[in-house]
Recover the amino acids of this structure.
């Protein structure tokens, strides 16, 4: 394959070739990485940034900046090269030379929080484009609230074949098309190459027809024809639908002997090919050297953004909505929330409702949504089951973004990624629901919530065999353990309405940690009948029933705390003193000091009780202790029958306790 | 909304209404379940079975039967009603009366293995249609091997809006369209209703255009017009592409006051509405009573299948391929595999290669694929990284199914579901690869492998921070724990080429348990230098280095066993006797007797070593023991730097051991 364009002549050509040179040189220096995508998409990215992107490297979190998401995250060097050239102060050339080294900001894939100007972590394919849908949705919702003076920007995505083959892309594309997210523009790196070889090995999909079927505006261009790319972006910007621009590109464009083949995707080009590429591109400068003309070109992009941001700041200063806008982007009003939750808990301790914790979650959400103005609820088509919609909430609709509730459709994974995007965009706090068993469908996006430290809240109801007749496909037995395994993720399994309210309070005030609330389908009594101002759930586990000197300690979570309390009653009748520990959040208990933990757990024999597998319970249990729970999948039957069948009963617990004593 | 057809008059109309009556009566009796889909799709299903399906209820595993997959698994009563009416001997009326009761065969969702004629477990949306793609692919592959005399059948799917909104459906549809799986026919229950309300709440996708974009043949019919449905199926059967028939239906058809609304989706109709439905449908019989005319109609379907199977049996009896065909459907030749693996292990003990276990996996696969004639390999576009393709394997291509390797594309979830389908179809043993971190993408389908007991093999390479520069998005730290949490799933993490071969041997001889092989990217020395005929990996964990009386026991898996061995050397130099336990499979170790476990673990202080989180290690470790591993996400850097950075080194282990002693 031969180079398809003349030797670089314009500044814009040189700006693109600067990306290519930095990408191939950094990958070579690291002896690891992906030169193919940055070199192939350098022209498209240069046109996008040079002619359209509005950003200010000195104010990288400016709310009204355009968002750029490199969904094909393996092409991270494209991002780092651009951010260096734009002049982000944390991306000096030295960082590019240290690509993929320990402690550098230039990680193998773009990592949110590692360097400025990285809007989201990408690498797991399909996540970037799906997260961008959340960003574009948040933009429209914030626009509806604050007007175009304060919120009026675009979300641009570079996506590869991998992103478009992943299932999550279907959920994201459908949701964006349905909601008419007109500020979302996806540039598809249509290079016809995957790792195994040509795309014809595994796909025959007409991507343009596919996007059109989902309600998108679709164009196709030669991705190395800068004027064509510019014209297409121009057209996309004024269309009232989300836009996909198929950019026909040559992967590794510029490497004369390797371009257009999968060999250029994920390995250094080698010194010889790099020299040949330099010649073919007419790039005469040594590695990591950028001529002034090119640097000036890129700095002009930044200068345009600086001006735009200054104008915006003036508008904000005089806006009647300035205070509300700033508040939306600041920390949650923890004081107000604490006061509201405290008052609510006090009422609960008197009312003592017997409700499922999914219902208790709705009750707590009434407080949360009534106190915090910028929550965004939703469910993956289980609104009435997840109880995620509170009284005041109206749904977001195509073209009408004033609502604060999202019908995500039967798209758990897309919902999770969109919530990441909403949270990353800023200004709103998303939560969304599905059945706990279907956390598996969300898991890759939940992992990114944790890795990025995005405080999304997952409302996962029907959290055990207690859901009954729907059977083992719907009954999580290993799901709680699998979520507790995830670093930087709070898993709450509240026992009653009080703990549910406390869990919501903690989840909504997290700044860098996502939460999952595992909630029951079945009704549960209020066990915390004595009101405390303190949020006891914040300790992770606490003594719910303290008999003083104890013969046995029963430790339970969620719906099984009721069973533990009943077992303690049975034991008491037999003269055995049982303490009951409610353990709504393992992660928070693990953070407590040794004294507190020792005080709660005591030295007596222990029994853990959870309608799930034992894995992870060694936080509480020693080898000599016992566990009442599940050892395999559940079954389809009414919940009480299942609890009896699997031996998760107060009688079984009491029997064990007697044997242990 | 009024009933759109006249009172039932033909036998076929009555056959359809029998499904409706049984569905609404069983759901009412259970006071739980989903009448909407069975009532809405009763006409389509009746036409499908009455005029097309070939099956023999007395030989429910007859290999050349047509497959029927109820992807909208909540409509399970449609399946149970039909299977009862067809005369499956394990589905007497009593089972329908016990719908959703403990111990009945009529679980809330169709569960593979619970009753005859259930081809796969469904309920988690999108899984059925995606599993069916694997079945339809297996049919074509078996047809290519054994000819149309022995293999020539269809796979029919009923899918709902939920199935088509799920991301996995995109992967499945694209793969099926690409491979031109002409024997796959999807009947879409286009009823415009989801749980939250009308589909217009969350989707605007033109499904017909979408399927066409993926290379499908598409038709649309009134799903209550039986002749139209029949004509469409007829047309679909002779098309050379997979077919989607959009069947416009009224959910809950027949319930005069509730049909066409989401109220009829997932709750009993109530006695009053059921009475009204009986009148509207002209169905005069009491609950659970079927008139002879109707029963005869359904039994005629079965009779047609009995005849077809008898003809097929005659063809098989005289086929020169009969022996091979029977062998393909029988158990693996465990003896031959054992001999081949033993001979290979013997060579390894002499050659002692230093290879990554992903490479060792390829070497073992050369033996496996050379010994077992019916393995089917594949990868989600990481063939060269997963090392899943052996020398003799050629890829399956559109229209050419002679190969035994599948380029699944960047579709981990679709791959996993397709492998379930291939295994369920029978005749072939599938394995497929991706990076271990992306097990999360496969997880809902992996869970079904485990729940159904389908012995699929997942080849998951790049199994720790040892993958290096790609960074935390690609580094599984919690993934191994999350897979060990899954019931009925063997997770192998072999330490060297010998254990890798042993793991493959165990995985390939499983009959009802899927396996995951977690394999290193980085090179590892052969540690099992003394040849044993016995498969030591089958014990789950064993003493790799036994110093006799020991001061400390080091327990490690996979790439960290090398570190444990090096630590033992360091300790030996200081006069401390360290035993090293290699623990390639926790699940198998948990199955060993207490004597063996005590012998392996000893009583000395223990240190667990795994470049992953500790969760699950209480199988080996007591509270006083120690663990060297990860506590959070990884980072992007060369692997040796990461091991040092996170303190997973022989020096660190030896230091800890000295402190413990």
């Amino acid at each position: 394959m031969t180079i398809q364009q003349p030797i670089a002549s314009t500044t814009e050509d040189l700006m693109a070739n600067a990306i290519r040179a930095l990408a191939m040189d950094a990958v070579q220096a690291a002896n690891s990485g992906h030169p193919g995508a940055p070199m192939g998409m350098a022209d498209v990215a240069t046109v996008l940034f040079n002619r359209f992107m509005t950003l200010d490297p000195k104010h990288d979190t400016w709310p009204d900046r355009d968002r750029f998401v490199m969904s094909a995250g393996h092409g991270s060097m494209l991002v780092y090269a651009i951010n260096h050239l734009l002049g982000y102060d944390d991306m000096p050339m030295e960082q590019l030379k240290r690509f993929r080294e320990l402690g550098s900001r230039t990680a193998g894939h773009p990592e949110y929080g590692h360097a400025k100007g990285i809007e989201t972590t990408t690498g797991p394919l399909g996540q970037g484009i799906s997260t961008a849908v959340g960003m574009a949705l948040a933009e429209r919702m914030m626009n509806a609230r604050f007007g175009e003076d304060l919120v009026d920007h675009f979300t641009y995505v570079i996506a590869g074949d991998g992103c478009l083959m992943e299932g999550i892309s279907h959920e994201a594309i459908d949701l964006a098309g349905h909601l008419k997210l007109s500020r979302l523009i996806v540039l598809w790196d249509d290079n016809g190459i995957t790792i195994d070889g040509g795309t014809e090995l595994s796909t025959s999909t007409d991507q343009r027809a596919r996007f059109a079927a989902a309600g998108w505006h679709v164009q196709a261009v030669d991705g190395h024809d800068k004027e064509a790319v510019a014209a297409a972006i121009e057209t996309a910007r004024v269309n009232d639908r989300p836009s996909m621009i198929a950019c026909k590109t040559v992967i590794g464009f510029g490497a004369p002997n390797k371009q257009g083949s999968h060999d250029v995707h994920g390995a250094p080009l080698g010194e010889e090919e790099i020299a040949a590429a330099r010649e073919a591109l007419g790039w005469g400068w040594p590695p990591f050297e950028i001529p002034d003309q090119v640097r000036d070109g890129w700095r002009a992009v930044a200068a345009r953004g600086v001006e735009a941001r200054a104008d915006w700041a003036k508008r904000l200063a005089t806006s009647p909505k300035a205070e509300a806008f700033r508040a939306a982007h600041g920390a949650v009003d923890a004081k107000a929330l604490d006061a509201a939750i405290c008052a609510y808990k006090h009422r609960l301790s008197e009312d003592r409702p017997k409700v499922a914790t999914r219902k208790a979650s709705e009750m707590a959400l009434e407080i949360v949504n009534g106190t915090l103005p910028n929550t965004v609820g939703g469910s993956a088509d289980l609104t009435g089951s997840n109880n995620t919609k509170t009284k005041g909430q109206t749904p977001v609709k195509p073209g009408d973004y004033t609502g604060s509730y999202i019908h995500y459709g039967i798209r758990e994974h897309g919902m999770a990624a969109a919530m990441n995007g909403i949270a990353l965009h800023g200004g709103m706090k998303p939560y969304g629901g599905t059945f706990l068993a279907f956390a598996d469908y969300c898991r890759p996006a939940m992992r990114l919530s944790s890795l990025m430290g995005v405080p999304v809240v997952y409302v996962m109801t029907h959290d055990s065999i207690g859901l009954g007749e729907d059977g083992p496909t719907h009954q999580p037995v290993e799901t709680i353990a699998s979520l507790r395994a995830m670093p930087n993720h709070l898993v709450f399994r509240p026992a009653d309405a009080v703990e549910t309210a406390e869990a919501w309070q903690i989840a909504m005030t997290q700044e860098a940690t996502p939460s999952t609330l595992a909630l029951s389908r079945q009704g549960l009594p209020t066990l915390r009948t004595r009101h405390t101002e303190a949020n006891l759930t914040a300790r992770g586990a606490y003594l719910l029933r303290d008999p003083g000197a104890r013969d046995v300690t029963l430790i339970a979570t969620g719906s099984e705390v009721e069973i533990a309390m009943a077992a303690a009653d049975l034991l008491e009748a037999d003269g055995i003193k049982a303490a009951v520990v409610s353990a709504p959040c393992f992660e928070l208990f693990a953070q407590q000091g040794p004294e507190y933990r020792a005080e709660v757990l005591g030295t007596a024999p222990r029994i853990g009780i959870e309608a799930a597998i034992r894995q992870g319970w060694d936080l509480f249990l020693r080898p000599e202790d016992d566990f009442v729970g599940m050892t395999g999948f559940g079954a389809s039957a009414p919940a009480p029958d299942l609890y009896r069948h699997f031996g998760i009963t107060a009688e079984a617990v009491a029997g064990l306790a007697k044997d242990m004593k």
Remarks:
- The longest strand of chain B covers residues 184-190.
